[in-house]
């Protein structure tokens, strides 16, 4: 073997060794790769900042499609007599199935609503399960937990109204054995909602510094609890809760139409709003489609898709001189108080003005009206709940007084219209309060379940196809039933 | 155009310069090389003047022409044949018959980590010569494989520069990376659109598990091995190939014209209780044909220049390529520049080193993906332009939101350019350590950068197409991958025993990163303005992300044969992937074994004359797929924009846990069994191969829907959830001969049959619904369920059309209107609802086949390729996607229901309603097709003539790709594709087009 060959063999062996060395030396760490651009969950739930961010996610998620757009409108508005599909006839005509009560367990948007509420609930449960162990300011921690309870209660309330019994999850599933659970009886779900709201109200502050504007307040927890109690006909509780809210400094915003505009968001009447904003530097966060899906269709400029439009039944429900009619119904061809002319070529005669955002706020490539907050609970509703509870409990004077406060604003300063309700007859007063809820809260997704709660749905919605014994609730999405392999049982009639 | 000519002249200039170098005057010897066995001509035979580097190659017809001293000796060399030396002795014509070394025994195929004699292969490997790929008009090499290899199904996408979908023996993976693994010169890729087809020497498709398992880690969907051209010993051979041609849409869809459109839209309004939109439909005449307005015959040019040569100790191959392809949509353009250099150096007797480096630059002008939808939907009553030159506006015709656009304005104001740079290649060293040992180390890298820049100006084209602010979007992706491989090979022969043993080890790292940024109010007085920094500071936003995976593997192989008669191949690969670190089996082990029996080598077969070759083979192997998402078992925090909280108008980051991850994830494994035979008859003129395979994917990884009430954002949990099976057979046959009159020809055909089935799912008969695109109105059109095929179409079965109110009253669809679909109430409960849906079709092709003919006569050559698929369905999602007054096809217009008795198959114009547009059997159509894939006619100019022009060879050709496609499907193209559970849903795919070219091939 000559010198050259030995030399080459040495080089060769060196190459082999070095390449094998590279491998074995770093084998373990070489394959242990960190997730990229994603924070591992094991590093989360450690600091107060983590708790803050997690609670933020609960609020942010409330803006999404399922909570504010098609799924919510399909489940919570289409069935009512105040709204119908709108838009162009062929666009998303399944919405008519909710309007005409032909919806089945596979109808589009049904699963979206179910999913959306349970996504809210998961985010809340994550906070409620994980934040307690974080070492942080005790007061702030308690408030964060209370905020999560408020949103969890709000989401369960939306579910139980829509579906009746629903699986009740108050913790994140620990493992697969907790994935598939049956529906929990409605009463237990309501009990859990009430417990959450009680606990939330005990902790939440009456108000926040400006930087925290939009978070759930004590008033919000109390008012939502009052609404829940109203659905349970617990009138003592409704009265007590609303009486408390009425001492917290809320008042009616003087101008009904103006109270729904961008510059009057979170006003003195506002009890809870889903906070939305059009952020030019954050399109992903400018994701509310609440106004877009309801904006006038076929308008110039393009203001939206034209869904969930007022009916003539709503239009004719207003008494003469009621300013709320023109503030609620955006007519084709009208010029708004903000000076926008709605095109004569718009597809539909009427649109929901409460979702209207002035044209100058529309930014190309963003969802139209992405900045419009969604009004979940207003002080006017607290007054009306107070009136209804007072009436049910025989306090006619209080009932009249609370009711007439709401009517007074609707006169828009014009004397002689919308006279005070003076009847002392309990039934007549109840009818008046229900009627007032209709026009005051019109197009705010209250009417449908309100009428069912009142026990009049067969009368009011019957002509559209609503049937007692079936349509009190919507069907459970068929996909969920299939996935549960029979653990989840369908509602009767579907 | 001016720039194109500049480029052409530069290329031509280089060619001309080279002529003087390459050409030294002697006598010209011409001739033809044929195979001693089957008498066919042999292309690419190396012809060398002995003792010099003066050489050439035979052309496609086996012909050569070389200048050599009158007393020289010519050396003819070709892989698999015995080298021949022939003295020139002043002869002007020398015809050579090469004997294959031992019939087919020496034919070699490229397999994993090396080559193998074809006769020794016990698995299933499809091999395609580079020439068969580069001669086609396809700019992507994979596209050119269509119909060439049994069991390999290619779905082409007509967009310039796009990558086709390739499926080898059926869909075996549902989740993550479902594509095949490409290995180019030892470096791994997921996509090879950067590769110039002209640089390909050979392409091998590893089809069965035993051949794939040496690449266990990513081989489950098949492996495509590509070797690029390297230098050959001999004087520099300079070749120029160029072509120019154009593409034309072959199967346009005829839409309703303006009068027809106005008629049906009035019908639609009436059916919805609305007034007529058009007072006098006839007054609109034929109106605008939007397809004709926006489509064009698109120019395509291609230039290839290569220099190839070498000495005993070094060789080189250098190539430049340029492709310029217009899209059939006006404004679309794609340009690709490639350069490749490879060198091999035998620096010392036992040590060889070399490298390949290739660079690619791709520039494209893009079109919006929405344009095909717009062309389908746009109202023909709207003019392209008004008399004053402004855009015709759908708003002026009150067409509503569904088609409130002018497609011409859409492409005019779409300004997006993409730039893609890529450098990749490898360096290697090969050392012969002792007599029988070879050690090879190779380091490969792939570095890419992709930029997309889109600009929207402030404009107002129509009421519906405007922007109040300008916007600049910049996207940048980076890829940084490397791979190290070390192999040690031992090769020896002991008497009748042939043994090759390979051991190897590899490590890989794959990293990608992207950043997307946007700013508003960016001025645009010149390209120099297009920087985010010039935009409104308050509107700038940035997002980024990335992925990192690492792999480490060891592998080994033993090839053994006894008397060339009994064959045994076995491999084992052990792979570790970062995906499976922490939770799961970090290491996956993938064995394989194959055995073969070459019956014709048996003593008792010696005297038979029927078979020239007969081999039985059987193999079994396991492969895996690490192409699942990174860190699948690591629970991570979600922080999407939707979680951003707004308080007092200010945004605050939101984070939370909104997913579930499995605690444990195992390798998905595919086990394949193959049996087959190879036979040659009639002096090797007829070759037949047939095989049966059974490929079972075990513990397939994919997301199983979990209960929505758990509240995750994805709604599913990935895991090892199912067993899938692809079973089928493949058959191919080739006939090659030369007639007495000198006509050489070959005819080959192949057929693949595959049946796909979901064998079991851990959750039982839980269906997975998908295929819910915007175009199916959110209806879920596919279902994957135990016992069915992956992603089969699912929906209502149409029984007919409701003709009148009485029929409706008697039906299970009380809410229907006359003209609506009448669905079958399959469960017979008196109500048509989701429970009545049934399986409507299968998007997975059952049969795929190809047929090719090559003919050579004197200086002419002709190629014909036919190809097709059968037993496949398509979901035509275009037609029912309606939000307003979208246009209809002429077919629909002609056949629609418009009053009692007018149709019992086509519904009324009101087919956009939820009930009518729900996935149903009307939209599921047969997707079978057969087509003339390629036809090429070439002519080699007489040597005497071209020699005067200082050329060795000049061939001219005309060809056509896809000139004729026959299908019944009512969309643009039956080639739809899609991800496994969303396959075959046509939502405005790129139209089918034919390419017609003229080209020249020159060798100096």
Automatic annotation (TrEMBL), chain A:
Q: Which residues form the SusD-like N-terminal domain?
A: 30-228
Q: Which CDD domains match?
A: SusD
Pfam families found in the cross-reference section: SusD-like_3, SusD_RagB
Enumerate the InterPro entries for this protein. Answer: SusD-like_N, SusD_RagB_dom, TPR-like_helical_dom_sf
Q: Which SUPFAM superfamilies match?
A: TPR-like
Keywords on record = Cell outer membrane, Membrane, Signal
Instruction: Tell me which residues make up the RagB/SusD domain.
Output: 269-494
- Keyword RNA-binding (UniProt): no
Note the PROSITE patterns from the entry: PROKAR_LIPOPROTEIN (PS51257)
Do the record's keywords include Signal? yes
Residues spanning the signal sequence: 1-24
Where does this polypeptide localize?
Answer: Cell outer membrane
UniProt similarity note: Belongs to the SusD family.
Q: What is this protein called?
A: RagB/SusD family nutrient uptake outer membrane protein
Automatic annotation (TrEMBL), chain B:
Q: Know the name of this protein?
A: TonB-dependent receptor
Keyword Electron transport attributed: no
UniProt keyword annotations, A-Z: Cell outer membrane, Membrane, Receptor, Signal, Transmembrane, Transmembrane beta strand, Transport
Q: How is the protein disposed in the membrane?
A: Multi-pass membrane protein
Location, primary (coarse class)? membrane
- InterPro entries with a match to the protein in the record: Beta-barrel_TonB_sf, CarboxyPept-like_regulatory, Plug_dom, Plug_dom_sf, TonB-dep_OMP_SusC/RagA, TonB-dep_OMP_SusC/RagA_CS, TonB-dep_rcpt-like
Keyword hit for Transport: yes
Give the TonB-dependent receptor plug domain ranges: 118-223
- Which compartments is it annotated to reside in? Cell outer membrane
Q: Signal peptide: which range, if any?
A: 1-24
The family classification in the record reads: Belongs to the TonB-dependent receptor family.
């Amino acid at each position: 073997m000559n010198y050259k060959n030995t030399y080459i063999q040495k080089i060769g062996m060196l190459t082999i060794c070095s390449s094998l060395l590279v491998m074995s030396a770093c084998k373990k760490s070489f394959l242990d790769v960190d997730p990229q651009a994603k924070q591992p969950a094991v590093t989360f739930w450690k600091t107060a900042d983590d708790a803050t961010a997690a609670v933020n996610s609960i609020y942010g998620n409330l803006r999404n499609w399922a909570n504010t757009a098609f799924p919510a409108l399909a489940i919570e508005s289409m069935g009512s007599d105040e709204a119908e599909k709108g838009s162009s006839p062929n666009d998303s005509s399944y919405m008519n199935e909710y309007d005409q009560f032909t919806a089945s367990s596979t109808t589009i948007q049904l699963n979206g609503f179910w999913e959306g509420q349970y996504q809210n609930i998961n985010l809340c449960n994550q906070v409620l399960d994980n934040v307690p162990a974080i070492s942080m300011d005790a007061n702030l921690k308690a408030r964060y937990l209370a905020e999560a309870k408020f949103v969890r209660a709000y989401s369960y309330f939306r579910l139980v109204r829509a579906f009746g019994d629903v699986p009740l999850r108050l913790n994140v599933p620990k493992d697969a054995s907790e994935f598939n659970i049956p529906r929990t009886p409605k009463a237990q779900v309501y009990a859990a909602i009430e417990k959450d709201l009680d606990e939330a109200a005990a902790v939440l502050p009456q108000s926040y510094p400006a930087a925290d504007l939009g978070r759930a307040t004590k008033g919000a927890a109390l008012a939502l609890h009052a609404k829940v109690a109203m659905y349970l006909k617990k009138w003592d509780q409704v009265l007590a809760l609303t009486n408390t809210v009425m001492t917290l400094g809320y008042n009616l915003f003087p101008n009904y139409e103006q109270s729904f505009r961008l510059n009057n968001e979170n006003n003195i009447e506002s009890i809870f709003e889903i906070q939305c904003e059009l952020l030019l530097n954050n399109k992903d966060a400018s994701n509310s489609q609440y106004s877009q899906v309801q904006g006038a269709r076929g308008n110039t400029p393009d203001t939206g898709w034209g869904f969930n439009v007022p009916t003539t039944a709503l239009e004719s429900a207003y008494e003469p001189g009621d300013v709320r009619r023109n503030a609620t119904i955006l007519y084709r061809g009208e010029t708004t108080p903000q000076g926008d002319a709605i095109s004569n070529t718009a597809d539909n005669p009427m649109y929901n003005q409460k979702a209207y955002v002035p044209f100058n706020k529309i930014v190309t490539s963003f969802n139209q009206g992405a900045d419009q907050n969604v009004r979940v609970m207003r002080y006017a509703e607290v007054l009306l709940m107070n009136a209804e509870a007072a009436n049910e409990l025989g306090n006619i004077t209080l009932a009249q007084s609370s009711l007439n406060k709401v009517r007074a604003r609707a006169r828009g300063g014009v004397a002689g219209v919308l006279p005070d309700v003076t009847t002392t007859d309990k039934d007549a007063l109840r009818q008046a309060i229900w009627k007032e809820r209709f026009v005051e809260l019109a197009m705010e997704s209250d009417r449908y379940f309100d009428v069912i709660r009142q026990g009049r749905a067969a009368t009011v919605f019957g002509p559209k196809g609503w049937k007692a014994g079936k349509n009190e609730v919507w069907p459970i999405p068929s996909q969920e039933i299939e996935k549960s392999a029979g653990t989840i049982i369908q509602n009767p009639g579907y | 155009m001016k720039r194109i000519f500049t480029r052409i002249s530069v290329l031509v200039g280089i060619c001309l310069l080279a002529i003087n170098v390459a050409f030294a005057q002697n006598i010209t010897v011409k001739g033809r090389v044929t195979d001693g066995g089957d008498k066919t001509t042999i292309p690419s035979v190396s012809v060398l003047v002995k003792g010099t580097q003066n050489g050439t190659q035979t052309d496609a017809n086996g012909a050569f022409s070389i200048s050599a001293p009158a007393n020289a000796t010519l050396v003819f060399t070709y892989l698999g044949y015995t080298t021949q030396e022939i003295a020139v002795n002043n002869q002007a014509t020398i015809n050579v018959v090469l004997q294959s070394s031992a019939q087919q025994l020496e034919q070699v195929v490229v397999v994993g980590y090396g080559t193998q004699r074809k006769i020794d292969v016990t698995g299933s490997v499809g091999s395609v010569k580079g020439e068969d790929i580069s001669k086609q008009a396809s700019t992507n090499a994979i596209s050119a494989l269509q119909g060439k290899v049994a069991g390999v199904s290619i779905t082409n996408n007509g967009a310039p520069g796009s990558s086709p979908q390739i499926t080898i023996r059926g869909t075996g993976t549902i989740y993550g990376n479902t594509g095949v693994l490409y290995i180019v010169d030892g470096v791994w890729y997921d996509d090879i659109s950067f590769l110039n087809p002209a640089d390909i020497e050979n392409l091998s498709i590893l089809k069965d598990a035993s051949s794939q398992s040496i690449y266990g880690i990513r081989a489950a969907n098949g492996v495509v091995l590509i070797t690029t051209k390297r230098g050959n010993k001999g004087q520099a051979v300079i070749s120029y190939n160029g072509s120019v041609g154009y593409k034309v849409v072959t199967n346009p869809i005829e839409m309703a014209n303006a009068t027809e459109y106005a008629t049906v839209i009035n019908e639609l309004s009436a059916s919805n209780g609305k007034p007529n939109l058009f007072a006098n439909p006839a007054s609109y005449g034929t109106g605008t044909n939007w397809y004709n307005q926006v489509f064009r015959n698109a120019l395509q040019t291609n230039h290839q220049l290569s220099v190839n040569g070498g000495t005993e100790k070094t060789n080189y191959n250098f190539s430049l390529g340029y492709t310029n392809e217009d899209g059939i949509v006006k404004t679309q353009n794609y340009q690709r520049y490639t350069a490749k250099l490879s060198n091999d150096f035998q620096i010392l007797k036992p040590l060889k080193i070399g490298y390949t480096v290739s660079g690619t630059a791709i520039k494209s002008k893009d079109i919006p993906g929405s344009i095909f939808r717009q062309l389908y939907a746009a109202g023909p009553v709207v003019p392209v332009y008004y008399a004053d030159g402004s855009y015709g506006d759908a708003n002026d015709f009150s067409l509503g939101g569904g088609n409130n656009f002018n497609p011409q304005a859409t492409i005019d104001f779409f300004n997006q350019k993409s730039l893609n740079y890529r450098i990749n290649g490898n360096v290697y060293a090969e050392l012969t350590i002792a007599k029988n040992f070879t050690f090879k180390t190779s380091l490969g890298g792939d570095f890419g950068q992709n930029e997309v820049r889109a600009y929207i100006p402030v404009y107002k084209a129509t009421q519906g197409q405007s922007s109040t602010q300008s916007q600049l979007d910049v996207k940048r992706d980076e890829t940084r991958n490397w791979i190290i491989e070390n192999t040690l090979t031992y090769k020896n022969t002991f008497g009748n025993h042939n043994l090759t043993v390979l051991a190897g080890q590899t490590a890989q790292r794959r990293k990608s990163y992207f950043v997307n940024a946007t700013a508003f109010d960016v001025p645009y007085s010149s390209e120099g303005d297009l920087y985010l920094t010039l935009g409104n500071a308050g509107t700038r936003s940035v997002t980024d992300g990335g992925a990192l995976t690492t792999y480490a593997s060891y592998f080994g192989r033993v090839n053994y044969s006894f008397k060339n008669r009994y064959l045994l191949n076995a491999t084992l690969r052990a792979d570790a992937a970062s995906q499976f670190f922490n939770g799961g089996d970090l290491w996956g082990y993938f064995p394989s074994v194959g055995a073969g029996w070459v019956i014709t080598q048996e003593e008792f077969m010696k005297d038979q004359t029927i078979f020239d070759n007969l081999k039985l083979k059987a193999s079994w192997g396991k492969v895996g797929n690490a192409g699942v998402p990174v860190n699948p078992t690591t629970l991570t925090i979600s922080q999407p924009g939707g979680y951003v909280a707004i308080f007092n108008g200010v945004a605050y980051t939101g984070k939370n846990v909104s997913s579930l991850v499995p605690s444990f994830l195992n390798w998905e494994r595919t086990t394949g069994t193959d049996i087959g035979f190879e036979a040659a008859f009639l002096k090797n003129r007829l070759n037949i191969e047939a095989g049966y395979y059974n490929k079972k994917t075990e513990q397939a990884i994919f997301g199983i829907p979990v209960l929505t009430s758990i509240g995750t954002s994805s709604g599913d949990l990935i895991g090892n959830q199912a067993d899938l099976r692809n079973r089928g057979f493949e058959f191919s046959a080739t006939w090659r001969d030369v007639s007495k009159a000198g006509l050489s020809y070959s005819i080959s055909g192949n057929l693949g049959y595959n049946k796909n089935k979901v064998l079991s799912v851990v959750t039982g008969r839980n269906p997975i619904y998908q295929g819910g695109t915007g175009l199916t109105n959110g209806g879920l059109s596919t279902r994957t369920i135990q016992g069915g095929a992956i992603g089969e179409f699912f929906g209502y079965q149409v029984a007919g059309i409701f003709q009148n109110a009485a029929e409706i009253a008697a039906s299970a669809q009380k809410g229907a209107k006359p003209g609506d679909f009448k669905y079958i109430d399959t469960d017979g409960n008196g109500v048509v609802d989701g429970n009545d849906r049934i399986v409507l079709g299968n998007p997975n092709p059952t049969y795929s086949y190809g047929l090719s003919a090559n003919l050579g006569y004197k200086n002419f050559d002709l190629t014909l390729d036919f190809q097709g698929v059968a037993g496949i369905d398509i979901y035509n999602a275009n037609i029912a996607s309606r939000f307003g007054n979208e246009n209809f096809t002429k077919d629909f217009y002609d056949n629609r229901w418009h009053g009692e008795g007018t149709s019992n198959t086509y519904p009324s114009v009101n087919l956009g309603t939820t009930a009518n547009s729900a996935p149903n059997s009307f939209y599921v159509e047969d997707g079978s097709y057969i087509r003339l894939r390629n036809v090429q006619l070439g002519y080699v100019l007489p040597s005497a003539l071209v020699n005067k022009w200082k050329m060795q060879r000049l061939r001219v050709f005309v060809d056509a790709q896809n000139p004729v496609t026959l299908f019944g499907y009512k969309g643009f193209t039956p080639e739809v594709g899609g991800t496994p559970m969303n396959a075959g849903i046509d939502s405005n795919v790129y139209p089918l087009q034919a390419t017609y070219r003229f080209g020249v091939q020159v060798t100096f």
